[in-house]
Design a protein that fits this description.
The chain is α/β, with parallel strands linked by helices. The chain contains 13 helices and 22 strands. It is globular, with a radius of gyration of 22 Å.
Length: 469
């Protein structure tokens, strides 16, 4: 008898972690960190809901923190199995986890200083640099796309022959396993699914049928995106109109995928003469800088068209006026540069990182344009700004919101409602589990799918819930 249990990314979009028990093997799909307000992040410090030492293998769908961020915790608590993922994801996860360890250390030191004054001992960080270092030793089984891997006891893994269309190295995960009476069955885990037609990554392939069980994300299960072309046009209008007025463009951006996509489009604008070559563009995120270099290393995983029109040795992410700002001093120096200028900085939801310093300096100025191109979780600073707050607190101080605000959701790396519906209808699974979405999104998608797929058993699981598959 095979079963699946859900230990993250249910009732929320973060903390992906699903356990399959089949053929005597215990296989984990992702081990992500919970992100957002403390009520959500505190889940990182709770038990997994299973014994990490009992897990035989971990399959990592891609390198975002909400999918890989608890791997060091898993390792600390006894997991010694192999981690299976693609080559780019292995290297991306290393950067993401090391950056996370740095953030956790900084937060701990800040919290410790405050609590010591009150005579309270601060809780230790979730994990350290050493924890990340030792957990990376478990990434000993990188897998090529379409390569079938025997996991033992009649269970096998295949990463789909094309990427999931989400980020560099992302893949759809197929698990073949023995079901009741020894009959072979197949589970498809989408990880995070893109909607295609993006300049950097390949479009997601249609599912390879037959599929008995589908575990599918639902981040935008109740919403449609604007067309990608319209979103690029709006980005161009927001940037060029601000540049003409010698203002500052702030773009809070995720270090992985979104930064590289934006660099590509800004570079295209410069090559077309829509932005003057001398206008400075600051990529103000050490992590985004390192990941951009990984994109250049693994360009063979990107779309072939990405290099069209570029000369030999040129990069689609490099252009005149681009500055990589690594250090804190370089970051602060941006404020001394007169406009016009463009600043890309993390974090994408404005919950931390260098973007908060820029918001403190520029959000109250009418000459500033804030372009939001990523998902903003409930409770985040970004969500409050998107929802129309006239004033927000940054570093404990009130800051007026006078900047022009653009919210361009067509850049999302997640598939919208129509693409998710189409993918599920093409799959026609026997059982379908809707995960990785806020409650309204997941329930709306499940409701629509139940009408379109009346023969499919559809569930929106709760944390810790188990099902036979």
């Amino acid at each position: 008898m095979a079963e699946i249990s859900f230990h993250g990314a249910v009732g929320t979009v973060t903390g992906s972690c699903h356990l399959i028990h089949a053929g005597g093997r215990r296989i984990l799909l992702d081990a992500g960190a919970f992100q957002g307000p403390w009520a959500v992040e505190s889940l990182n410090y709770r038990p997994f809901g299973f014994d990490p030492a009992s897990i035989n293998s971990l399959i990592l769908s891609h390198g975002h923190l909400d999918h890989c961020g608890r791997i060091p915790v898993l390792s600390n608590q006894g997991f010694r199995g192999s981690i299976f993922t693609t080559y780019p994801t292995r290297d991306i996860a290393n950067l993401i986890l090391m950056d996370s360890a740095h953030v956790l250390k900084e937060e701990f030191m800040w919290r410790q200083k405050r609590l010591l004054r009150a005579g309270i001992k601060a809780e230790a960080p979730l994990y350290t640099f050493d924890d990340v270092y030792y957990s990376m030793e478990l990434f000993d089984r990188p897998v090529k796309l379409h390569q079938k891997v025997d996991l033992g006891d009649g269970v096998s893994l295949t990463f789909h022959s094309a990427e999931a269309g989400h980020i560099l190295g992302s893949a759809q995960v197929y698990i073949d396993y023995p079901g009741r009476h020894g009959k072979q069955k197949r589970l498809l885990y989408t990880g995070d699914l893109g909607d295609g037609d993006r300049p950097l990554v390949n479009d997601p392939d249609a599912p390879e049928r037959p599929v008995d069980v589908l575990v599918m994300e639902s981040t935008y299960g109740n919403r449609e995106h604007r067309s990608y072309g319209e979103s690029v046009d709006e980005l161009e209008e927001a940037i060029t109109s601000t540049i003409r007025k010698k203002g500052t463009v702030l773009i809070p951006t995720f270090a992985l995928e979104r930064s590289q996509e934006l660099l590509y489009h800004i570079g295209q604008m410069k090559r077309a003469g829509k932005i003057a070559a001398k206008v400075p563009v600051f990529l103000n995120s050490p992590l985004a800088i390192d990941i951009t270099r990984l994109y250049q290393r693994y360009c063979d995983y990107c779309k072939h068209e990405l290099m069209t029109g570029l000369g030999k040795g040129d990069s689609p992410f490099m252009f005149p006026g681009l500055h990589f700002t690594q250090t804190a001093d370089e970051s602060r120096a941006i404020h001394t540069v007169e406009g016009p200028k463009i600043v890309l900085a993390g974090s994408g939801m404005m919950t931390g990182g260098r973007i908060k310093h820029h918001l403190k300096h520029y959000l109250w100025k009418e000459s500033t344009t804030l372009i939001i191109v990523g998902y903003q979780a409930e409770g985040s600073l970004g969500r409050r700004i998107v929802d129309g707050a006239d004033e927000v607190k940054i570093f404990g101080q009130p800051v007026s919101v006078r900047a022009r605000i653009y919210t361009i959701n067509g850049f999302s790396a997640h598939a919208d409602r129509s693409h998710l519906m189409d993918f599920a209808k093409r799959t026609k699974p026997r059982k379908l589990f809707v995960v990785h979405g806020e409650p309204l999104s997941s329930s709306a998608l499940a409701g629509e799918l139940s009408r379109e797929l009346p023969s499919t058993e559809i569930h929106v699981p709760r944390l810790g819930q188990s099902f036979r598959i």
